[in-house]
Amino acid sequence: MALNGGWDSGLTSVLDVLRTAQAGRARLDPDLPELEYTVVTPGAAPVTTAGGLLVTGGCSVTDAAGAGTDLLLIPAMAAQGPATVVDALMRDDVRALHRDLRHWAEAGGSVAAACTSTFLLAEAGLLDGRSATTTWWLRDLFAQRYPKVALDMSRMVVRDGAVITAGAAFAHIDLALNLVSHISPRLAAETARALLIDERPTPSVSAFTDHLRGHDSLVSDFETWARAHLHHEIQVADAALALGVTRRTLERHVRERLGTSPYAFLRALRAERAVHLRATTSLPVEDIARRVGYRDAGSVRRLLTGG
C-alpha cells in the first residue's frame, strides 16, 4: 500500500525484493508459486510519497480483497518524532484506512507493517492481544499508547498469526524477505544473495547480511530434500534420518525459522505442488495425488480445501 507522505524506500525496497524473488523462483524451482503483487492506494486519487514520488491510484483495498489478495503490507509513514506520528494517525485518510484494515482482517486477510506503520495497525486494534514490534525510537510511545499489545523489541520481524510487524525503516527489507521465506526459505536466501551484489561491509547491506547470517542451512536442506521426495509418502522422521539429525532437532530448527512444524511445512509443500499441477496440467486428481505423495484423490482434495 502507498500512503500520502509515506516513506519512499519502504515502498520501493519491498517491491525490489519481491521482484527479485519472482525472477529467481523459476530458476530455483518452477513449482514454487508466483509472487503476484500490486500497489494499493487508499482512493482513486494519486498518492505522493514524502520524497515526491507520484503513485497512480486505481487499486483499492476493496479491489485487492475481491481479487483474492492474501496479504496487505503497509510501509512506514514518514515521521520525524512522536508528535508527527500521532498527527499522521489523526489524518482523515489514515482514519478511513483503519476501517478498511479491520474489514480486511475480519475477512481473513493477513496484514504486515514496518516502522511507524505498526502504529497504524495498533490504532486499528489489530495488534490487541498479539505480540508485535516497532521502531526502536518510538518504543516508549507505542507501549504507552497500546498497552494491550505484547511489545517484543528483541526481534526485527515478529509474526503472530495473520499479523506481521517489523522494526525501523530499513527493516522493510527484512520484512519482505520474511514473506518470501514463508514461501521458500531457500528462495529467500537466494534473493538476499542476489541483492547483496557487493560483499564489502557497508551499513546499506547490513539487513541482507543479517538475513544471511540468520539463514538456517538445515531448514533449506529439509526443503530441498522434501521437494525432491514429494512424490513419496514421506514422513518427518524420514527427512530427519536423510539429513543426519534427530527428529527433535529438525522440528526445533523448522519451528524457530518458519514458526511452524515440519509436518505442516510438508503439507504446505504438497498443497503448493498440487495447486501448480492442477493449474498447469490436465492430469486427473488421482494422478496429482500420487505425484504429491498421497494414495487417493480424497486426500489431495482435503489438502486443497484445507480439510
Oligomeric organization of the protein chains: single chain
What general outline do the C-alpha atoms trace? Answer: globular
The fold-level CATH name of the largest domain is Rossmann fold
Helix content: 40-55%
Averaged pLDDT, please?
Answer: 85
How many strand units? 8
Tell me what the structure shows:
There is one protein chain. This protein has 307 residues and is of the alpha/beta class. The protein has two domains: 205 residues, Class I glutamine amidotransferase (GATase) domain (Rossmann fold, 3-Layer(aba) Sandwich); 89 residues, Arc Repressor Mutant, subunit A (Orthogonal Bundle). The chain is 52% helix and 8% strand. The protein has 15 helices and eight strands. The strands form three sheets. A four-stranded mixed beta sheet has the order 3-4-8-7, sandwiched between helices. Strand 5, helix 6 and strand 6 form a beta-alpha-beta unit.
Provide keyphrases for this structure.
52% helix, Rossmann fold, 307 residues, single chain, alpha/beta, 8 strands, Arc Repressor Mutant, subunit A
Question: What is this structure's SSE topology?
Answer:
Layout: H1 8-28, E1 47-48, E2 54-55, H2 61-66, E3 71-74, H3 82-89, H4 92-106, E4 110-114, H5 117-123, E5 131-132, H6 139-145, E6 150-151, E7 157-160, E8 163-166, H7 171-181, H8 185-195, H9 206-213, H10 217-228, H11 236-243, H12 247-258, H13 262-280, H14 285-291, H15 297-305
Parallel strand pairs: 3-4, 4-8, 5-6
Antiparallel strand pairs: 1-2, 7-8
